[in-house]
Please model this.
Amino acid sequence: MSDQQRQEMEDTQDDGASRLAWFLTGAIIGVTVAILYAPKSGKDTRQFISEKTQQGKDALAHTGTDIVEAGRDMFDRGRKLVEDAAELFERGRKLVRG
Model:
């Protein structure tokens, strides 16, 4: 695997982890602010928090699906690279043997 391809794979992994971390941070901050500044009654506030929590779960599930798909894509690309390298190795060995 070339250094450029390895770097691209690492960048893709770092990007996915960074997005997830920022999402979770934003969700925590949003919930905290909503609780602290809620001008509604306790019942209304609990309902609001429940709805936002469900939205957060849905968004997290979607993000998880995206991460799984990205992982599969990277796995497939890695497998293709290994297959190509094995093929090149075999060609080189045949050339050396004559």
Notes: The mean pLDDT is 81. Residues 36 and 73 are 42 Å apart (CA to CA). The helical segments are 3-36, 42-97.
